[in-house]
């Protein structure tokens, strides 16, 4: 398959277009079709070969690369999910979310008059109110991890109540975790009912379903779990919590985005994608962007349908942009870390 050409709108950082109408998640869900789930197959060697080409088959340099990286910033769910999180850390995270690029870098990139922010700030339920206060007036949504993140093994009623509490506190996006046991046992009705109940509890908030792909053992399980979550009405499917021993990988992501494409062909419904965990360099982030463009199209390069779950990624992107401007790499501590 020939490599698609780089879109003209990314040819110059100085001429990044204003926001254009893009697709939004639109997935009311469909009845569970276990026959369709059973038909999901994955050719492991073919997936691995395709994934291996993603970082190499498309090359963008100089201002084109800078433009892709600015777009990557706009797709980041800037995240802090540590046991030692504090209100102060969350407030600093939100300040960085408002201005992810230093003012001098924006000026040098010709973006001084453009609004550049991350897509969302992702925190535990405890810090939803603090994040809402810190982001007031910015238009940046707060995402809350929920349902006993990261393991998802609390009683069902407890997990459901946590979703409702986070929505009541003002979270506009909810990242839920599934019970991996349902996938490992092939209990698709149980997985479907669980995700469907969480979606109902989210009300007006968008829901991202974390599959915990590092725990699912096979790519076929990843494909089938993706399909069931979409049938149950999730707005996004997400790879990982970031706490598994193996988090986002390109082969896993490829299986998931092809499930999104197959689901849209079958139902007409639009679902987003969020890789998370282990994405810490600009080079890796761009490989995911290339995959989204080639597999799903330009609409999946926008934050409405594509997110990175990350924190340290932003620092490396800033370093790469500073190198583009100055020809020199700065140390990581030269850039404000969220």
Descriptive tags:
338 residues, 8 strands, eight-stranded parallel β-sheet, globular, single chain, TIM Barrel, alpha/beta
Secondary structure topology:
Elements: H1 34-38, H2 44-53, H3 62-74, E1 76-79, H4 87-98, H5 103-108, E2 120-123, H6 128-134, E3 142-145, H7 156-168, E4 173-177, H8 180-184, H9 188-202, E5 206-210, H10 219-231, E6 236-238, H11 250-267, E7 272-274, H12 282-295, E8 308-310, H13 312-326
Parallel strand pairs: 1-2, 1-8, 2-3, 3-4, 4-5, 5-6, 6-7
Helix pairs in contact: 2-11, 3-13, 7-9, 9-10, 10-11, 11-12
Give the low-pLDDT segments.
1-12, 14-18
Query: What kind of sheet is the major sheet?
Result: 8 strands, parallel
- Number of helices, counting only DSSP H or I runs of 4 residues or more: 13
Q: What structural category arises from helix and sheet content?
A: alpha/beta
Shape: globular
The CATH homologous superfamily is termed Aldolase class I
Mean pLDDT: 92
**Count of individual domains:** 1
- Overall CATH architecture: Alpha-Beta Barrel
CATH class annotation? Alpha Beta
Termini separation: 39 Å
Strand order of the largest sheet: 7-6-5-4-3-2-1-8
Helix percent band: 40-55%
| Residue fraction in strands | 5-15%
The third-level CATH topology is: TIM Barrel
Computed over alpha carbons, the radius of gyration is 19 Å
- What is the number of strand segments? 8
Tell me the series of helices and strands, N- to C-terminal.
HHHEHHEHEHEHHEHEHEHEH
């Amino acid at each position: 398959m020939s490599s698609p050409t780089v879109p003209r709108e990314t040819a110059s950082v100085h001429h990044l277009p204003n926001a254009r109408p893009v697709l939004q998640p639109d997935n009311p869900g469909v009845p569970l079709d276990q026959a369709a789930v059973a038909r999901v197959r994955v050719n492991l060697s073919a997936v691995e070969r395709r994934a291996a080409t993603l970082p190499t088959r498309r090359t963008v340099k100089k201002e084109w690369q800078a433009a892709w990286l600015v777009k990557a910033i706009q797709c980041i769910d800037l995240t802090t999910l540590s046991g030692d999180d504090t209100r102060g850390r969350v407030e600093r995270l939100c300040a960085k979310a408002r201005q992810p690029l230093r003012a001098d870098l924006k000026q040098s990139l010709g973006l001084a008059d453009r609004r550049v922010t991350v897509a969302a700030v992702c925190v535990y339920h405890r810090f939803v109110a603090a994040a809402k206060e810190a982001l007031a007036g910015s238009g940046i949504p707060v995402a809350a991890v929920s349902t006993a993140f990261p393991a998802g093994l609390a009683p069902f009623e407890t997990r459901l109540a946590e979703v409702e509490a986070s929505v009541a506190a003002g979270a506009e996006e909810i990242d839920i975790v599934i019970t991996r046991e349902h996938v490992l046992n092939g209990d698709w009705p149980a997985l479907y009912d669980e995700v469907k109940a969480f979606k109902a509890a989210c009300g007006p908030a968008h829901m991202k379903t974390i599959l915990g792909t590092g725990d699912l053992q096979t790519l076929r399980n990843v494909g089938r779990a993706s399909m069931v979550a979409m049938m149950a009405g999730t707005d996004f499917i997400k790879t990982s919590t970031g706490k598994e021993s193996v988090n986002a990988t390109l082969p896993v992501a490829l299986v998931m985005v092809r499930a999104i494409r197959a689901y849209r062909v079958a139902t007409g419904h639009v679902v987003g994608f969020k890789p998370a965990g282990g994405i810490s360099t600009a080079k890796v982030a761009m490989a995911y962007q290339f995959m989204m463009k080639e597999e799903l199209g330009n609409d999946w390069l926008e934050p409405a349908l594509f997110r990175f779950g990350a924190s340290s990624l932003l620092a490396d992107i800033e370093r790469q942009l500073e190198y583009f401007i100055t020809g020199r790499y700065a140390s990581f501590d030269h850039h404000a870390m969220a």
